[in-house]
């Protein structure tokens, strides 16, 4: 195996794909010409700001594999994936993309794309196999090698410290239902940030508290699959938020002053049903209240009155000090946006009403992704306005696709190209209208282990043959390459 795909080999691969597809390069030439001409004319209005960060994203459990290598401990997802009936086709992430060993090949793919940043996550069980105690030096060294290789390639590492792979040893003690887990997470986050200090400038505490609590603790669709209800569920959510706040403080204590700290959250991206002032105002209210248990609490240090009233007896128990910690100041906010929800003004206590999607509404392969490009326009704009957020990154955006290699080996994922073109167009429009979005991370660089869906849904712009681990850039890879090259749609 030759793990290194050089820039020339990558360019030849995607160039050959483009030629085979008779893909016109006019869009790239037009965007580049517009930028060089000083951003004049109609094409210039589609340009992104100078210095805009273009990246891709993955998560440790979804791509690394090597689950029993170099002292890594067991995670809740290892247990869940090996429980019969949990994952489509009985798939596991024991090997996944084998990025633990093949990361040089993946970095070469990123270099060929021209990305300037890579969002990855650290596997907590690789650092503390039992969640706490003595750190595992081999795990720490792996991430040091990864970020050093990224920097050598001219790619800025953006590190997420928790992307759902809780050490199983902590789950046996109650997981996020146990307040001690929040403290254990902060200890781990501070330690790892200190180890990567000087190598990594951007840290995210957690990825999508709303998802790993809602689907892992509130239902059985993700690890650990508990199906909690009522106050028990809300208390787990609160302790996860507390873990975020404690980690912010621990990271700041362990790193130099230039380190930037944030989180990545999957939001309810509120959109007005159409652009009329009363509906825009309603969507802005929805942005606050529909995210009250997560982002709103993190940026205000309090739960809204309406949120607590709605929960009633199920509301979490908390102290003033805990809320102060949860509201610890961050430097940026990552937003994971795939779809959104429509709202209209209403004469009720909330001042808004959600508009359900009719059965005829279009969605992508993953049924939960309703095609809603407006979400990436309104989501950042309204969250920034409502919560005073000054720096936002789109830390995930993308779609699954059923496109597979044809007889010539090409993966012509025109559905993903269409999705990205429309969403990026709306993102550019939002930035032009004042949304403080500083960068975009496409999900995902690779086809990977898609949680409970196993390998049945592919989100990558690179096709991965999981039997051979051969990587093949898709048509969407060429599209993204051209967007980055021209810094424009």
Automatic annotation (TrEMBL):
<dbReference type="Pfam" id="PF00232">
    <property type="entry name" value="Glyco_hydro_1"/>
</dbReference>
<dbReference type="InterPro" id="IPR017853">
    <property type="entry name" value="GH"/>
</dbReference>
<dbReference type="GO" id="GO:0008422">
    <property type="term" value="F:beta-glucosidase activity"/>
</dbReference>
<dbReference type="InterPro" id="IPR033132">
    <property type="entry name" value="GH_1_N_CS"/>
</dbReference>
<keyword id="KW-0326">Glycosidase</keyword>
<protein>
    <recommendedName>
        <fullName>Beta-glucosidase</fullName>
        <ecNumber>3.2.1.21</ecNumber>
    </recommendedName>
</protein>
<keyword id="KW-0136">Cellulose degradation</keyword>
<dbReference type="InterPro" id="IPR001360">
    <property type="entry name" value="Glyco_hydro_1"/>
</dbReference>
<dbReference type="InterPro" id="IPR006311">
    <property type="entry name" value="TAT_signal"/>
</dbReference>
<keyword id="KW-0624">Polysaccharide degradation</keyword>
<comment type="similarity">
    <text>Belongs to the glycosyl hydrolase 1 family.</text>
</comment>
<keyword id="KW-0119">Carbohydrate metabolism</keyword>
<keyword id="KW-0732">Signal</keyword>
<dbReference type="InterPro" id="IPR017736">
    <property type="entry name" value="Glyco_hydro_1_beta-glucosidase"/>
</dbReference>
<feature type="signal peptide">
    <location>
        <begin position="1"/>
        <end position="31"/>
    </location>
</feature>
<keyword id="KW-0378">Hydrolase</keyword>
């Amino acid at each position: 195996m030759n793990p290194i795909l050089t820039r020339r080999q990558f360019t030849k691969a995607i160039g050959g794909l483009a030629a085979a597809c008779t893909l016109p390069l006019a869009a790239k030439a037009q965007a580049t010409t517009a930028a060089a001409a000083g951003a004049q004319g109609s094409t210039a209005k589609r340009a992104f700001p100078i210095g805009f960060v273009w990246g891709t994203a993955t998560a440790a459990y979804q791509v690394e594999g090597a689950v029993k290598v170099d002292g890594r401990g067991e995670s809740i997802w290892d247990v869940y994936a090996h429980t019969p009936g949990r994952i489509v086709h009985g798939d596991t992430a024991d090997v996944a993309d084998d990025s633990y060993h093949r990361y040089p090949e993946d970095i070469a793919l990123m270099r060929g794309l021209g990305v300037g940043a890579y969002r990855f996550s650290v596997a907590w069980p690789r650092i503390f196999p039992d969640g706490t105690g003595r750190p595992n030096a081999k795990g720490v060294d792996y991430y040091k090698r990864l970020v050093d290789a990224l920097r050598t390639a001219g790619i800025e590492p953006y590190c997420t410290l928790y992307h759902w792979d809780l050490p199983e040893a902590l789950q046996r003690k109650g997981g996020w239902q146990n307040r001690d887990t929040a403290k254990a997470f902060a200890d781990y986050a501070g330690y790892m940030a200190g180890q990567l200090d000087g190598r990594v400038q951007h840290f995210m505490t957690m990825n999508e508290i709303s998802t790993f609590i809602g689907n892992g603790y509130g239902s059985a669709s993700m690890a650990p699959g508990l199906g909690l209800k009522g106050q028990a569920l809300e208390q787990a959510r609160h302790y996860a938020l507390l873990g975020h706040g404690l980690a912010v403080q621990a990271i700041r204590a362990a790193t130099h002053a230039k380190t930037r700290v944030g989180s990545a959250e999957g939001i309810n991206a509120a959109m007005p049903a159409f652009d009329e002032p009363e509906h825009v105002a309603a969507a802005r209210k929805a942005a606050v209240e529909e995210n009250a248990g997560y982002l709103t609490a993190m940026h205000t240090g309090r739960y809204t009155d309406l949120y607590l009233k709605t929960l009633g007896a199920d509301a979490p128990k908390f102290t003033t000090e805990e809320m102060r910690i949860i509201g610890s100041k961050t430097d940026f906010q990552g937003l994971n946006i795939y779809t959104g929800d429509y709202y209209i003004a209403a004469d009720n206590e909330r001042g808004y009403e959600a508009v359900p999607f009719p059965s005829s509404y279009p969605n992508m392969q993953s049924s939960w992704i309703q095609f809603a490009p407006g979400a990436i326009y309104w989501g950042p704009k309204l969250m920034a306005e409502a919560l005073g957020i000054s720096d936002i990154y789109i830390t995930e955006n993308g779609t699954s696709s059923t496109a597979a290699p044809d007889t010539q080996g090409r993966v012509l994922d025109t559905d993903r190209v269409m999705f990205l073109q429309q969403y990026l167009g709306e993102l550019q429009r939002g930035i032009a209208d004042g949304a403080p979005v500083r960068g975009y991370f496409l999900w995902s660089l690779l086809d990977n282990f898609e949680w409970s869906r196993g390998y049945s849904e592919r989100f990558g712009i690179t096709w991965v043959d999981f039997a051979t681990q051969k990587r093949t850039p898709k048509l969407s890879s060429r599209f993204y390459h051209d967007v980055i090259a021209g810094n424009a749609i």
